[in-house]
Design brief:
By secondary structure, the chain is an all-alpha fold. Helix content is 79%, strand content 0%. Helix 2 runs antiparallel to helix 3, helix 3 packs parallel to helix 8 and helix 6 crosses helix 12.
Amino acid sequence: MKAIFRKEIKAYFLSIQGYIFIGVFLLIAGYYFVAYNLMGENAEIGNMLDNTIVSFVFLIPVLTMRLFADEKHMKTSTIYMSAPLKTWQIVIGKYLAACFVFTAAVLMTLFSGIAVMAEGVQTVGELFTVYVGYLLIGYCFISVGMFVSAATESQLAAAIISFGVCFILYLADWLGTAASGRVFEFLADILGVASHFDKFLSGVLDVTDVGYFISFAALFVTFTIVKTESERYK
């Protein structure tokens, strides 16, 4: 698993993909920090982070599209598929690599959070809680993008499909509110990833919401393992 992790990290930074993701993400985060915190004189970093969640819809597919699709297209996946590694080790290694790049980008915004915290409005605990929730949402989107990549051989197709799925997840809460009926409300509660971030924004580390994010990510990682396993021994 460590070998897969290191391989994927190198792939991100030996190509332009990792730099594009981090660069564009920081550009968007910087824009909202200036607009909301500096010019808007807002002393809560949560507003900046909350507004950048929509960028996950566009950026995380860029981060995950090549995880499986590229190797399947180039027919190089057989190299590690034939290695003495369990399927779950391959999948987890790739997932952790994508999460590492995402986490590195998010932690670069922590300087903004510390600067805002210096104003005395937010405590260290509140800042920590907001960032935990923010990271968990990203990990959920990454798990979805990875599964889509495992289900196709085209990076472009993986990016487009991931974008569509992530867009639905982002709007699920709004769609559930707009539609009537318990079924829609139930689906919105399950799929509304962004809505589970609300308590984190208030500085509340809710075990239920943490469990939701972990379960959501674990579910799609499991889907990826099952999909990869089914193709490994064809």
